[in-house]
Amino acid sequence: MKGSPAAASRFPAAAFPVYRPAMHAIIYKICPETLWRDAEAAGRFDGAPIDRADGFIHFSTASQTVETAAKHFLGQDGLLIIAVDAAKLGDALKYEVSRGGALFPHLYAPLPLDAVKWMKPLPLVADGRHLFPAMDA
């Protein structure tokens, strides 16, 4: 019977795992180089204007970066792609539903610069898209 002790023993809570999205080891931020250089001088990155307006810093997983660049940065020159060690961001990093129902990493705190693994230029090519570097760790 539903809700009875017998039902509880047949269906222990441990048998029903809680859904948690897979944590990506590395997440990526596309950022104008001038904005990033200001962050380096300040010792932390508080986000781009859109991040501050939304209340969190937008990131992408490796598989989301090309579409993010095309949607939000098409034709923009002087960009960097920044690889971030997601494990260093703690509970302030949340994966939330966004574009097309996909889960995107959002950071509800400033980005500490010690979480940055590397940064590379994101050059613009003739058709307004970007040439992505090798994104290995």
Order of helices and strands: HEHEHEHEEEEE
**Shape, principal axes of CA atoms:** globular
In the CATH hierarchy, the architecture is Alpha-Beta Barrel
Measured between the Cα atoms of the first and last residue, the distance is 52 Å
Q: Structural class of the helix and strand makeup?
A: alpha+beta
Percent helix, as a range, is 10-25%
Q: Mind summarizing the main beta sheet? A: 3 strands, antiparallel
Quickly count the domains.
Answer: 1
Strand count: 8
Quaternary state of the chains: single chain
Computed Rg: 19 Å
CATH top level assignment: Alpha Beta
Q: Would you identify the CATH H-level superfamily?
A: Protein of unknown function DUF952
The percentage of residues in β strands lies in 25-35%
Mean pLDDT: 85
Counted by DSSP, the helix tally is: 4
What report would you give on this structure?
The termini are far apart. The chain has a single domain, classed as Alpha-Beta Barrel (ADP-ribosylation fold), CATH 3.20.170. The protein has 4 helices and 8 strands. It is α+β, with helices and mostly antiparallel strands.
